[in-house]
Write a structure and sequence with these properties.
alpha/beta; Quinone Oxidoreductase, Chain A, domain 1; Rossmann fold
Length: 375
Amino acid sequence: MKIRAAILREMGRPAPYADSHPLRIETVQLDAPGAGEVLLQIKVAGLCHSDLSVINGDRPRVMPMVLGHESSAEVVDVGPDVHGLQRGDHVVTIFVPTCGRCQACISGRPALCEPGAKANTEGTLLSGAQRLSQAGQPLNHHLGVSSFAEYAVVSEASCIKIHQELSHREAALFGCAVLTGAGAMINTARVQPGDTGAIVGLGGVGLSALLATVAAGAQRIVAIDLDDNKLRLAKTLGATHTLNPRALANESEMLEAAGGPVDFAYDAAAGSAAFGTAYSLTRRGGLTISSGLPHPSARFSLPLAQLVADERHVCGSYLGSGVPAQDIHRFIDLYIAGKLPVDQLLGQTFTLDTINEGFDHLASGAGLRDAIALS
């Protein structure tokens, strides 16, 4: 079938993207789903920093590629050997298709699925196939999804069936922003009532982490960002302390503004400086977590003596360090119960034709979780 899709052919074009047009809306060929695959009509696709990191070259991928990974969609057709989905089902897409058979999957760590990582690196679906092409030349898939398009063929393993009572605009949040941010707090930090924590970077992921930290009963929650409007929002969402590093002269002032060191600190901003802020706020024996994906050359130097003497813990969290089929459902249940109000994170809505303007808004750092509406 012929569909319209946003194609990235060259990374690193300069901003503003409304002028340089890194994403071109073109007609492409989408083949029918193969074994274990489904055809989705994309309803809403979130604009995520992981997409921006491909556009600006921080996250190198094979070109040309149809971008997009955080989305809500409706199943319109299924291929052979699809057993868990049928036409009419509503799904959210996840950005690591999991095989269920590799060592990582059977150990309960599907975010580290080896075939899934290989497929994502090579720009294919989990099967190794490519269902997108133009003029007979294949187009690469982004993270097994490529949802900046009217339709997408994806592996059944890239889909989580969801409640149809959610709007697609709400549902799209759960495939990446909520899964990543809330998952990092619940699964990695394992926040307990009375804990203290800090969150650096208040985009969709960071604010999702904040909401999960509030829901888990943390006592002191420090929200850090360079945008004062986001800090004011964080305060209304439950942050007990807010701080803008630009207004502080040194680490001592930062610790004082934060009310002291914290049990865990979370970098959701993707950069060495942000991780350094998170690390500096973590107490002795505490945990510093990052979900950021900066350029592969980014480095951070740790004082090894302190790492040992303070028994500091440093780790990454990918895909929320959990099991998406379980986590997405429980996060949606918390949202429906009013305990995880992620609808407060909804930003502006763009169209496929204004997607470059949408990425300008994302790059400005001023937006919440923006999205494009496709149908």
